[in-house]
Amino acid sequence: MLRALLFILPLALMIYAFIDCLNTPEEEVKHLPKPVWAIVILLFSIVGAIGWIVAGKERGPRGRAGGGRGAGGWVAPDDNPEFLKSLKDDGPGAKAEDDDDLLKDWEADLRRREEELKRRERGEENEA
């Protein structure tokens, strides 16, 4: 079991580092170009993988690496001023009017279908 672990653990670390390197945006790669990091990880396996994890990528809280609030990272909707502004632009009155129009269209369609169904039922009763 220990022999297998000694083989599987470095292999898993190398695979993780290689995939992480491939998925990392070019702006976040440090010291060497991304293709060179990929080659280093593949050629030097465990040492290359550890090198990538330690020195190859900018690490830290997401959204703060760019130097500001929400710069390149995910921001909660209540912290996002653009999202809050878009809510104010819609306004509560505009949504209510749209909802009323949709409700009226739905009711008219429902009445039309009910009338059509009644006509079919009357037609079938007359034929029988």
Automatic annotation (TrEMBL):
Disordered as annotated region, ranges: 58-80
Membrane topology (UniProt): Multi-pass membrane protein
Task: For this UniProt record, give its keywords in alphabetical order, as a comma-separated list.
Answer: Cell membrane, Membrane, Transmembrane, Transmembrane helix
Q: Do the record's keywords include Magnesium? A: no
Is the keyword Transmembrane assigned to this protein?
yes
The record's section on Pfam families has: PLDc_N
Instruction: Give the superkingdom in one word.
Output: Bacteria
Q: Where are the transmembrane segments?
A: 36-55
The record lists the organism as Streptomyces cinereoruber
The terms describing its cellular component in GO are: plasma membrane
The protein here is known as PLDc_N domain-containing protein
Localization in the cell: Cell membrane
Q: Which InterPro entries match?
A: CLS_N (IPR027379)
Provide ranges: composition bias, Gly residues. Answer: 63-73
Give residue ranges for domain Cardiolipin synthase N-terminal.
12-56
